[in-house]
Amino acid sequence: MRTLVDTVALAGRVRGPVLRTGDDGFTAEIAGFDLAIVHRPDVVVGATNAGDVAAAVSWAVEQGLAVAVQSTGHGQLTAIDGGMLITTRRLDEVRIDPVARRARVGAGVRWQRVIDAAAEHGLAPLNGSSSGVGVVGYTLGGGVPVLARGYGFAADHVRSIELVTADGVVRTADADNEPDLFWALRGAGRIGFGVVTAIEFDLVPVRSLYGGGIFYPASATADVLHAFRTWAPALSEQTTTSIALLRLPDLPQLPAPLRGRFVVHLRIAHLGSVEEGERMLAPMRAAAPALIDAVAEMPYTAVDAIHSDPTDPMPMHPAGIVLRHLPAEAVDALIAVAGPHVEVPLAMVELRLLGGALARPAAVPNAVSGRGGAFSLLGIGPLLPGLEQVVPAVVRSVLDALEPFAAPDVALANFQGSLEATAGPYGLWSGADAERLSEIKERYDPAGMFGAGQRSGVHSLPSGAAV
Fold first, then answer.
1. What is the per-residue pLDDT across 173-192, written as a single tens digit (0 to 9) for each?
2. 0.70 cut: is pTM over it?
3. Which of 113, 142, 270, 298 could form a disulfide with 277 if both were Cys (CB 3.0 to 4.6 A apart)?
4. Burial class (CB in 10 A: 0-12, 13-18, 19+), 390
């Protein structure tokens, strides 16, 4: 039986909406990007500021309820059943300090607003492949930027974090204040240490880049992938690249040569001149004829064109591993399980070049778990009706095929799917780091209110900005 809670007192403590099942606006308030995840909280609070979050957390403690959080809806891992859901999309502050090259943003901000605001000053944030994703969940999971090899993880550039911990206190964590919490939040945020309300981070001096994508036909899959595996590791840190096997739907918004087809998509982001970029890319252009070649100089504000990620909500299942190397045998194994001749429900399988600045430690140490690998492998399948059990098994089969080439003790938290479904809440970290994270979790959330904790029979996993 679901817990019945009296929300009258809560509504008097917060400025934002307090909603329960059946209330007007409840369904819209809990909706996220991944349509396969449908939350069923006892109560949802639409926070408008850090004070609302503090009041909501304090009330949840009084009621004995677990707490999960959703900002833009891209960071969902597991649907919550019962308890409290705090939505932070209304925390929409964006402040740019062009002199310090720094931004402060609220927990509900998406990357496009930061990109546009920073561009006015010739600066750019270290956002990922889609500007529609929220800043906080991406960054505190580590964050692999479009410019990753040149600048490293987004979490490496965080200066301070404002959050509400399980005691209802608004805290600021930085290198000097709450240093253990600051270490844990940057990279292991999905474990659940509190509710982030704002984050401050460095910007980089980038106005434009040489970038975009090249689409190759299915017939060129082997030639292009084998060319990529020898070409990519020799690139300078100025170039960040990935390659994806895409099974595209037959939709009118797609370019005609791509509709309903299997294609290989090479993605490029190069910080250098057009002439340097042309020389760098020449071997891949020679690997096979292209269906579409859209690599050129572009303003940073057009960075979404590199990956061309979907923008509409959809049900999906993602999972990934990190590879220590990519020999010919690994490429052949990938083609055997996910190539164009295989009928499988996969939307994308991506190989992303790591290394460069991603392999170096942060100036202020953090809990990012993904340093040391050569490539990441990410599989995503659409959870369409009738495929709910099939798709996770198919994605897992792709990862299993390349497991012999996996990097031991290296994982990218944002590319893992549910932590509980993989290796438990601390399974992505080494022994010493796992022990430290467990101790910090116990110190700041002893009752397990956030993340994978359990309280009063209500299970809750982190979502969005629940870190």
1. 999 999 999 999 999 998 99
2. yes
3. 270
4. middle
